[in-house]
Amino acid sequence: MSFLEVLPLVFVMVAGPQILSAIFLATSENWRRNSAAFVGGAALSITLVVTIAYVLGVGAIGQGTSNTTVSAIILGALLLAMVHTYRTRDESEPPRWMGKLGAATPRFSFRFGFLLLGFFPTDVLTSVSVGSYLAARDAPWTDAVPFISLTLLILALPSLVLVAFGERAETFLPKVRNWMNTHSWIVTEVVIVFFIGMSLNNLLG
Q1: What is the per-residue pLDDT across 154-189, written as a single tens digit (0 to 9) for each?
Q2: Does residue 37 lie within any of the structural domains?
Q3: CB 112 within 8 A of CB 41
Q4: CA-wise closest residue to 23 among 5, 39, 43
Q5: What's the CA gap between 4 and 51, in Å, rounded?
Q6: pTM (2 d.p.)
Q7: C-alpha 59: how far from its chain's center?
Q8: 16, 191 Cβ separation under 8 angstroms
Q9: 172 in a structural domain
Q10: pLDDT digits (tens, 9 = 90+) for 9-29
Q11: Is residue 18 assigned to a domain?
Q12: Count of domains in the chain?
């Protein structure tokens, strides 16, 4: 039961620059080694953060404040973020680090995967939430394995698609990459809506 409850958080882990980076690396020159290194770095950092949160039992964070109050504060912040993202959608530009992915090396890809999935704000919060959630319910650490594995599988999907479909994927993936690059605000809005749904569920549950 515990691992099923944390699986939806996989979407939060990969939505946004995470899956976009995986697509960029899958369309890079040395895509096999770059994609494998990226997923390897992500695997190390996600496992590390989840394990630390599980061992330390970070569930004590926010103690003394009611869940309803915390959820209401988060919901208000998310609504503001959603409005801001929409209003600035025409002003947004791809991050500068995106330009480095086309000429990435396996070493860079590994380090990038480690930092992006281990230190990106939403990913840190999500991994900590998974680890502390399992610890608070005395669930075994192994209940985090499906969460970690599914996250890594989705990150590996662009390269797996290339392996499976060959030339057709080589034509399709750049189009997906370009669309996501110019419509990144939509991806951001989707992530925010997901968080809003979680907050509303906490408030109304």
Answers
A1: 999 988 888 777 666 667 666 766 666 666 667 667
A2: yes
A3: yes
A4: 39
A5: 18
A6: 0.73
A7: 21
A8: yes
A9: yes
A10: 787 788 777 888 888 888 888
A11: yes
A12: 1
